[in-house]
Design brief:
This protein has 337 residues and is α/β, with parallel strands linked by helices. It is 35% helix and 19% strand. It has a single domain, classed as Alpha-Beta Barrel (TIM Barrel).
Length: 337
């Protein structure tokens, strides 16, 4: 099992962001990523602050040496995929080949409206995602590329220098059963699902398996990850603060979210977290979480706590760590008070 940290870089200073990813890089985490928003998420009133994603990735690349670097996920129609591919290749070089590419259709309508970016119907956004994934794949793997789509076009296009990695992995984010999971089966190396319960993860994973079979692809060839909203305390004295942090993060949705992808409680036997994953086909790899508000300093869930959390995750799934490689991503986000 592996752990990662997702930093929701909103309502937080850049010094705090830098402290978090530097800490994660030396605390045993295998992955650090940010999210792709310009306004606060979930939407409130548009007054929150949020640092841009690709430039944060570049900063993480320059200030870390061990962890994989990504965004789960980049909204496809925020940037032309050819321009995005060039930025991602640069980040792969800055990181020495540690880039992970996460792509999705986009959903935060407030951002689109504010910046004059057309917020197209979901079918069109999915069509743009499917075309854009192919554009990014071509430009990050081929010397020259041609592509003719409804929304994007390449003509003898090059993206040089080539990435450090021969084939950077692409993760497709979202839960749509008709389009998102089929796009993942066709084009993705991995699939990311946000805040799903164990039962829903298992069901959606089965849908992805079905699309893989229809596309003639081995379901086990696609990695699977889950976003978890993480609000675990390191010790009993921190439980009340962790609970308040959870309520501040989700507001009116706090109670409904308890039935979804939320981790609470304490690590260790008899005080297990509420876990939002069980083993399905295709080896689920990653969990992320998003606690928020007034962290003060990074939580003490680094190397010393990983074995205890691993034990609880495995116990909750009823599986052994030896059943397959898995990655757990923890998300630190700051909501405006």
């Amino acid at each position: 099992m592996q752990f990662g940290l997702h930093i929701g870089q909103q309502n937080i200073t850049m010094d705090e962001c830098r402290r978090l990813w530097r800490w994660a890089d030396t605390a045993g985490f295998d992955w650090v990523d940010v999210w792709d928003h310009f306004y606060e998420a979930p939407p409130i009133d548009g007054e929150g602050s949020c640092f841009e994603a690709t430039t944060c990735m570049a900063a993480i690349a320059c200030e870390t040496t061990n962890c994989r670097i990504g965004v789960l996920v980049l909204g496809m129609n925020y940037r032309h995929p050819a321009v995005l591919a060039n930025a991602l290749v640069t980040i792969d070089h800055l990181s020495g080949g540690r880039l992970e590419i996460g792509l999705g259709a986009g959903w935060h309508e407030m951002e689109y409206r504010a910046y004059g970016i057309p917020f197209r119907p979901i079918k069109e956004r999915m069509d743009m995602l499917e075309e854009g994934v192919q554009v990014v794949r071509l430009l990050t793997t081929q010397e020259r590329s041609n592509f003719e789509g409804k929304y994007y076009r390449l003509e003898n296009a090059a993206c040089k220098p080539r990435p450090v990695q021969a084939r950077p992995r692409i993760w497709i984010g979202g839960n749509g059963e008709k389009r998102t999971l089929r796009i993942a089966a066709r084009h993705g190396d991995g699939w990311n699902t946000p805040y799903t319960s164990p039962e829903e993860f298992k069901r959606l994973s089965g849908v992805l398996d079905m699309w893989c079979e229809k596309e003639g692809r081995d379901p086990a060839s696609i990695e699977r990850n889950v976003n978890l909203s993480f609000h675990m305390a390191a010790n009993a004295s921190g439980l009340a603060a962790a609970e308040q942090q959870y309520r501040d993060t989700w507001g009116a949705a706090a109670e409904p979210m308890r039935a979804r992808g939320v981790v609470t409680g304490l690590p260790g036997p008899g005080a297990g977290p509420r876990l939002a994953i069980r083993r399905g086909r295709g080896r689920p790899r990653q969990h992320r979480h998003s606690p928020a508000g007034g962290l003060g300093r990074p939580p003490r869930l680094g190397r010393d706590h990983h074995p205890r959390v691993r034990e609880e995750v495995s116990h909750a799934r009823g599986t052994s760590d030896h059943a397959g490689k898995r990655e757990v991503r923890d998300t630190l986000g700051n909501q405006r008070k």
